[in-house]
Design goal:
Layout (H helix, E strand, L loop, with lengths): L1 H21 L11 H10 L1 H22 L5 E12 L5 E15 L5 H67 L5 H35 L23 H9 L2 H22 L6 E9 L4 E9 L5 H68 L5 H35 L25
Antiparallel strand pairs: 1-2, 2-3, 3-4
Keywords: Signal
Organism: Novosphingobium nitrogenifigens DSM 19370
GO molecular function, one term: efflux transmembrane transporter activity
Length: 437
């Protein structure tokens, strides 16, 4: 029993040491290295796909800047036979015709096309950054799932050792006829229950590690999960991080870019009610070259109900984009508020769990002393052991939850892994270039 109590006390001292280390400004304790994380993010298929969409948006912007119109070259050849009306052929003549035409964008359309392209690039860039953000959250979630499961498994394995020590003590007392067979059965049952729970928690640790490796197969995982450190509130508190979440959201910047693009597309659709004219040149040779000439070509489409309907559609989509932007703003505010509340309450819950653990260990110590004096029976000792075990598990879970919440608010505020070195701001659209048709 002394061995069991010493093990519990050792765990308590380890937790206290973790608290002291956390107080020494070690915000990265328990987290993988930034270099490994960035490599894992870059290699994730979601991030690669988002980067490819950014390249596609840049190509689309170049196409919009150049415009949809190209030179059109047409030509024709004919062989004509001419007669005088009596059926007698007067000759056969080769005739040729060639023309070159090109539509021209009306004033203002090129500027809007470039604006549409620029907003599309801005949207894609921000969505690529948001993909990295979401992938970082996935990595952090999987990481703490693994470390949390491993922490609980460690506590459960230690509990098995504690119950084994209790059982060994009961067997020694039984050999001296100081303990009954019932007490030995009780100790055996407690050990069996602890072993079953240790097996389950070990299985959860294995599953959590497998899931982490499946999502990030190139991520260098240590052979054993690192210990979950004691959480630490950074200097300045958590409230400033909430404001950074609101100011650094790539999802919000992407929604704003969508609004800008939709507005430009609506304006472009209104201008498209008037079609682009086409200009060109025509050369021809008839009657074997006896008649030659050239001319200027001009064509102009007239807009009707179809173009008007497209303009109305683009205007409605711009209104929808504005509504979507308001929804995104609410979602970001919800995320910021939830992150702050979760971090604060999780940290407070861990502090309460630490205090309860210390009290349970002290109660276990008094219970064992009472048993040594013959004032307390084995049932009370086993109950105290179980309560200490549960207190250790509760503290381990609360510690993991607090670290998970603190990691999330740091990622969402771009203080960790995402733009934390260069204070990276969401992408903004480039200024419009001088108009060119």
């Amino acid at each position: 029993m002394r061995k069991a109590f010493s093990s519990a006390l050792a765990l308590t001292l380890a937790l206290a040491t973790g608290s002291a280390l956390a107080a020494q400004d070690m915000p990265e304790a328990g987290l993988p290295s930034k270099a490994d994380v960035l490599a894992a993010l870059d290699a994730h298929p979601t991030v690669e796909a988002a980067n490819a969409r950014t390249d596609a948006a840049r190509a689309d912007a170049r196409a919009l800047s150049r415009g949809p119109h190209e030179f059109i070259v047409t030509g024709g050849y004919a062989s004509r036979t001419v007669n005088d009306g009596t059926g007698v052929a007067n000759g056969r003549f080769d005739e040729f015709e060639a023309q070159v035409t090109r539509p021209i964008r009306l004033p203002g359309k090129a500027t809007l096309d470039r604006r549409i392209g620029a907003q599309g690039v801005t949207y894609a860039q921000n969505m690529a950054e948001d993909a990295r953000h979401q992938t970082a959250l996935l990595l952090a979630q999987s990481w703490w799932d693994w470390l949390g499961a491993a922490s609980e498994a460690t506590v459960d394995r230690q509990a098995v050792e504690n119950y084994r020590a209790v059982l060994a003590s009961v067997k020694r007392r039984a050999a001296l006829r100081d303990a009954s067979a019932l007490e030995e059965d009780q100790a055996n049952a407690a050990l069996g229950t602890a072993q079953a729970q240790a097996e389950r928690s070990s299985g959860r640790e294995t599953v959590a590690r497998a899931r982490l490796f499946a999502q990030f197969p190139g991520f260098p995982l240590p052979a054993a999960a690192p210990d979950v450190p004691a959480p630490h509130i950074p200097d300045g508190g958590l409230a400033p991080m909430r404001q950074r979440i609101l100011g650094r959201s790539h999802e919000l910047a992407a929604a704003e870019a969508l609004v800008g693009r939709a507005d430009a597309q609506a304006a472009r659709a209104r201008k498209e009610r008037t079609g682009d004219p086409s200009f060109g040149f025509r050369l021809f040779s008839e009657k074997g070259g006896m008649e030659k000439g050239g001319g200027v070509l001009f064509s102009m489409p007239f807009g009707g109900g179809y173009r008007s309907a497209l303009a109305d559609k683009a205007g409605a989509e711009a209104s929808a984009a504005q509504a979507d932007l308001q929804a995104v703003r609410r979602n970001i505010a919800e995320t910021a508020d939830a992150d702050l509340a979760d971090a604060q309450t999780s940290y407070s819950a861990w502090q309460q769990a630490r205090g309860a653990l210390d009290a349970q260990v002290a109660a276990l110590q008094k219970t064992r002393r009472g048993q040594q004096l013959g004032e307390i029976g084995l049932s009370d000792v086993l109950l105290a052991e179980r309560m200490v075990h549960e207190a250790f598990r509760t503290e381990a879970t609360a510690r993991t939850d607090a670290m998970r919440a603190l990691t999330k608010i740091r990622i969402d505020s771009h203080e960790l892994w995402i733009g934390d070195d260069d204070d990276k701001e969401p992408a903004k659209p480039a200024e419009d270039q001088p108009p060119a048709n």
